[in-house]
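Run log // design_07
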């Protein structure tokens, strides 16, 4: 949830600077947002790795759920930093007027990467292997989002020419 708040705030900053044609602030904001999201997600990894039982206890997990859930949380947690980067890229696409890229990324991540990876891994390694589908999906999503961002950067952001500072109009009023 903190990453979604960060990405929502970032959209306004990137969009405003896109309108102002300030490429340095656009790229700087995206870079800082990625850095912050990865740091937040590293805290998430730490919590999932160190306290999976305590987290599952919040949901009144049965013993069977504890057995399955503790391993699942520990495996799934490694996709968190990648998910943070994907969320920031997705928000960046929205801010840069490429909402269709954001939509494509979300759909492809879930339907094209995650579900088939989960199915294939379930056939190969059973339930334990299914949890790795999140990591596979996020890695593929990072490749896709990085490619789309690279394309937008070279076609749009890099070509921005800053607006000239507004020059005040000459004083036309007569001094009496």
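design_07 sequence
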């Amino acid at each position: 949830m903190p990453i979604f708040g960060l990405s929502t705030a970032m959209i306004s900053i990137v969009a405003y600077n896109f309108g102002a044609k300030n490429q340095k602030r656009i790229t700087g904001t995206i870079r800082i947002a990625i850095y912050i999201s990865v740091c937040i997600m590293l805290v998430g990894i730490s919590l999932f790795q160190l306290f999976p039982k305590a987290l599952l206890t919040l949901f009144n997990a049965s013993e069977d759920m504890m057995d399955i859930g503790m391993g699942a949380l520990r495996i799934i947690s490694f996709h968190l930093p990648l998910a943070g980067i994907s969320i920031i890229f997705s928000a960046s696409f929205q801010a840069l007027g490429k909402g269709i890229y954001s939509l494509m990324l979300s759909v492809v991540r879930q339907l094209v990467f995650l579900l088939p990876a989960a199915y294939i891994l379930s056939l190969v390694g059973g339930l334990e292997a299914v949890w790795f589908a999140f990591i596979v999906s996020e890695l593929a999503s990072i490749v896709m989002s990085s490619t789309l961002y690279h394309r937008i950067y070279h076609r749009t952001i890099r070509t921005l020419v800053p607006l000239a500072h507004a020059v005040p109009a000459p004083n036309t009023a007569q001094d009496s």
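The radius of gyration is 22 Å.
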